[in-house]
Amino acid sequence: MSPIIRWIQRAFVFLIASATMWLIATQVFERIDQRVPLFIALLITYVAAAYVILPIIVRVSAALLRSNRIPRVTRASDGLPADPVNIVLIGSKEQLLKAFSTIGWSPADRLSLRSAIQMATCFVLDRPYPTAPFSSLFLFGRRQDVGFQQCLGNSPRKRHHVRFWAANADPEFGPDDVAFWTRGPRIDPSTSHIWVGAGTNDTGFGLQSMTWQISHKVDRDADAEREHIVAQLLRSGCIEEHHFIEAGGHVATHFTTDGRIFHAQLSDIELRE
Predict the structure, then answer these.
(1) Whole-angstrom Cα distance, residue 225 to residue 77?
(2) What sign for the dihedral angle of Cα 68, 70, 74, 75?
(3) Are residues 146 and 181 in the same domain?
């Protein structure tokens, strides 16, 4: 990427960030502060900014600045770097689901009020929830398309897990259409896709260091989780033609990783049975 394009992108991001801060401070906080006490106004503003406004801004920015490179890290809803990208699998969604089913991993439920309550209950009471939901991370301007997990113990407190995004699944509509921002891409289960994944190991619950949002604590050794997933897929014959590739662009992250991404072709497991 040329320096001119890079500076244009930085200026664009700065303008979006400035406009977002102006929107939160003048259009959200001031309007609420006129109607309710200061503490409640601040609380409502925080919730609106962290869980409504910023996720939309992140998706819009990522979609407009999207490039053909595989990013090094995913992004949280507040735009901060999150889990590192460490695995890419090529194949259909049917093959992906079959591969992780073969190695004993469960697909994650969609995050909703009901699943969140069930997860919290299972966490407190130490009960199993093998399909516990994931929080939303963003790549290519959208939330994960599918996720899998392998529980450690009798509750969702600790688990191996991986999120995947179909990199070449483009939406039906362009950015000038409202549906582009409100709908995810249509993924044909039988069509081959480039599944870009971020695998990490949850070790418990805690608070995020910068936003103080309640979240899982994550093992910072992302390479160990990558090797765990790869070893299981290789042992079961779910992948072939594997090698390592490098992601584009350096991004500061608190994870310990060599930055390499494992790349492999998904096997047709049904033909092997």
Answers:
(1) 23
(2) negative
(3) yes
Residues whose CB falls within 8 Å of the CB of residue 240, separated by 6 or more in sequence, listed in order? 264, 265, 267
Q: State how far the Cα of 80 lies from the Cα of 253, in Å rounded to an integer.
A: 9
Domain residues for 41?
A: 3-64
CB 212 within 8 A of CB 50: no
pTM: 0.70
* Whether residues 165 and 49 fall in one domain: no
- 99 pLDDT tier (thresholds 50, 70, 90): very high
Where is average pLDDT lowest: 103-107, 157-161, 216-220? 216-220
Do residues 176 and 227 share a domain? Answer: yes
CB 84 within 8 A of CB 73: yes
259: which 2 tokens? 């930055």
Residues 83 and 204 in one domain: yes
